[in-house]
């Protein structure tokens, strides 16, 4: 496509959407709530344990108009959209969030904060990654901090980020799925000693839903 990726997909009027589906939120504060998920293709963070690596290459997903996505989301009873990826902060998202609000749809996003996050969001789930440190502006905006934990040493990264978010930001530690059973006892004891944290489990995987 080029030409600066068609002026970054016409300033956000189109996005490389990998998939859309209506399901229940499986992680963090909003676990168990119904939402329309919009997974945007493209990610330069590259987590080894990512469970949606097929989303990394945005060129695999032809850009589609934002209005079409919002129209489909508006047909669902929850009237809530969760934008995920990939890494949504790669794209200008102001038009998307504006269109969602015009349709009385709650706008939520899941981001590593690796790039400046655009758009006006009702809920920002911030999940920082060591291999691509977050932009500073995300810390004051995040409603929840969700840190994926593979080993005990990752708790230092969690605390480093927790020290930078706002006092009202909710704090979650989430065991990486492939090692969850091995580290659950360690995480349980940690939260008991540091009760400002909560445990986030990938409930959708236990429930075997998308």
Protein architecture, described:
- The chain is of the alpha/beta class.
- It has one domain (3-207): Aldolase class I (TIM Barrel, Alpha-Beta Barrel).
- The chain is built from seven helices and ten strands.
- The strands form two sheets. The protein has an eight-stranded mixed sheet. It has a two-stranded antiparallel ribbon with strand order 1-4.
- Helix 2 packs parallel to helix 3 (94-102).
- It is globular and about 45 Å long.
- The model has no long low-confidence stretch (mean pLDDT 93).
List keywords for this structure.
alpha/beta, TIM Barrel, globular, two-stranded antiparallel sheet, 29% helix, eight-stranded mixed β-sheet, 7 helices, 210 residues
Q: What is the count of β-strands? A: 10
Low-pLDDT runs: none
The run of helices and strands is HEEEEHEHEEHEHEHEH
Order of neighbouring strands in the sheet with most strands? 2-3-5-6-7-8-9-10
The CATH topology assignment is TIM Barrel
Radius of gyration using CA atoms only:
17 Å
% residues in beta strands: 15-25%
Distance between the termini: 31 Å
Structural class of the helices, strands and pairings?
A: alpha/beta
Q: How large is the count of helical segments?
A: 7
CATH superfamily: Aldolase class I
Percent of residues in helices: 25-40%
In CATH, what is the class? Alpha Beta
Q: What's the shape?
A: globular
Number of domains: 1
Largest sheet: 8 strands, mixed
**CATH architecture level-2 label:** Alpha-Beta Barrel
């Amino acid at each position: 496509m080029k030409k600066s990726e068609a002026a970054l997909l016409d300033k956000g009027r189109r996005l490389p959407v990998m998939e859309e589906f209506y399901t229940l939120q499986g992680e963090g504060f909003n676990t168990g709530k119904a939402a329309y998920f919009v997974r945007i293709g493209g990610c330069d963070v590259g987590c080894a344990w990512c469970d949606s690596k097929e989303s990394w290459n945005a060129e695999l997903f032809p850009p589609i108009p934002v209005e079409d996505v919002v129209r489909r989301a508006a047909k669902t009873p929850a009237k809530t959209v969760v934008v995920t990826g990939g890494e949504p902060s790669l794209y200008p998202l102001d038009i998307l969030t504006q269109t969602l609000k015009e349709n009385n749809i709650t706008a939520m996003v899941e981001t590593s904060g690796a790039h400046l996050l655009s758009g006006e969001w009702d809920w920002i789930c911030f999940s920082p990654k060591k291999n691509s440190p977050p932009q500073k502006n995300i810390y004051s905006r995040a409603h929840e901090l969700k840190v994926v934990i593979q080993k005990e040493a990752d708790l230092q990264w969690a605390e480093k980020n927790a020290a930078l978010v706002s006092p009202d930001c909710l704090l979650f530690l989430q065991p990486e799925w492939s090692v969850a059973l091995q580290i659950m006892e360690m995480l349980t004891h940690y939260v008991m000693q540091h009760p400002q944290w909560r445990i986030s489990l990938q409930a959708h995987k236990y429930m075997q839903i998308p």
